Amino acid sequence: MPRSTIEEVAARAGVSRSTVSRVVNGSTAVSAEALAAVQAAIAELGYAPNRAARSLASRQTHAIGLVVPEDTTRFFGDPFLASVVAGIGSRLAESEYILNLLIASDDPDGKMTRFVRNGGVDAAIIVSHHASDSFVERIAEAVPVVFGGRPATVRDSDIIVDVDNEAAARAATEHLIAIGRRRIATITGTMSMSVSVDRRDGFLAALADAGLQSFGEVDGDFSEQGGAEAARRLLQRDERPDAIFVASDLMARGAIGVLGSAALRVPEDVAIIGFDDSPLAAASDLTSVRQPMFTQGEMLGGMVIDLLAGRRPDALTILPTELIVRGSAPAV
Known about the structure:
This protein has helices at 6-13, 17-24, 32-45, 51-58, 72-77, 79-92, 111-117, 134-142, 165-178, 194-209, 224-235, 249-261, 279-283, 293-308; strands at 63-68, 98-103, 123-127, 145-148, 160-163, 184-188, 216-219, 243-246, 271-276, 287-290, 316-319, 322-324. The chain starts with 5 loop residues before the first helix and ends in an 8-residue tail after the last strand. The chain has a six-stranded parallel sheet, sandwiched between helices. Strands 7-6-8-9-10-12 form a six-stranded mixed sheet, with helices on both faces. It is built from 14 helices and twelve strands.
């Protein structure tokens, strides 16, 4: 069926075009009688506002960009990112905004930056930020931005939703020490990311407090394959670790596979703790640090809506974590 027009709604309701426009845009400068007539006409005609025309008039797209500076393999394979995006989508579903995914490990020709700076979205949510992501800084200068996780360089104007990664990693390492492990290594995430640095620092702080030395720190790049390769490197030493704190569940799964291939038992020979408490942690009986990923996404979505409505959220929101103890590193 042909699309109904605003003029047809006005004619059916017996009001002017401008009155229909005010009703559609939520204005209160309309009499109760006119409001009822316009709403009835809209229902009868099945009228829907032309979003493109409204965007041109208001210079708003009603789109939020989710900027993820990663390749598509990492984005679609990482349970942390999946949960955060689900939370963002849940919150935006309650609003008139839609979510545009902008996924790229780099922006060498400036295509993504130009899209944002030329009005492609009204605001952006940035997650998985790396120190080398200069194009992210250009995006943050162009539109209102909320960061999921602390960016590499924090500006006074930044709004951030995060967990205390250092304290969480410290607690996980303290648990390994408490169950009697002494040759404790860590598989870190990509060290160009603040989250990786913080989790490594928490690991080292717990060891220092206990008078222990790190058995090794190997970058696993937050991927399952990277976690497996990092575990192989740790096992190449003359002496093996008796515990590994792994900075994500996905890397932990890769590491556990390598340990099994080397005929090492978890937890008898090597205790393992992951991070995220994603669904695969429960499925593999993995002790893991639980962070509220879905809640973080919901908060990011709500904060960016607040920004666009002229409300200023808190500059820093820290969400709680909890160590979930399972069979890969059971309590004594």
